[in-house]
Amino acid sequence: MDKFARGSYLMTHITLLNGRYFNKLLSKTEAVYSGEQGKILTTLRDFGDDLTASEISKYSGLANNTLTSMLKKLETMSLIRSVAHPTDGRKKLFSLTDFGREQVALGYEVSQEVGKNFYQGFKPQEIELFEKQLERILENIERVNKSKND
Fold it and tell me: How far apart are CA 4 and CA 12, in angstroms?
């Protein structure tokens, strides 16, 4: 494996294992949603209510084509609600319901547990350096994706 492929492979593998671990812990709570659905709930919690599907896609990293069905499912589950966009009838604005806020709090507790295990054996300064490096990688990937879409 060449020097550039290894990092990408490791990030992909970590993401898969981390997601499985998160879902395993989440299934032991009273949460009614999956880890993938939790990305939408967390996005609404972190970036505020009244987001369009495009904004949720941008902030969560989820593809627009998979997002539509997930939003419908979350709305059916009473975790989110939608209203018509006030100026663009083609769009909807999505918000967490009170039940959705309760549910996303369960996921936050699971995330804390996952994070504790994720960084086991790391010193605080190692975590800080590692996360700064990940942010640089994210910026590189976002820049490349943006230029490829232009």
Answer: 13
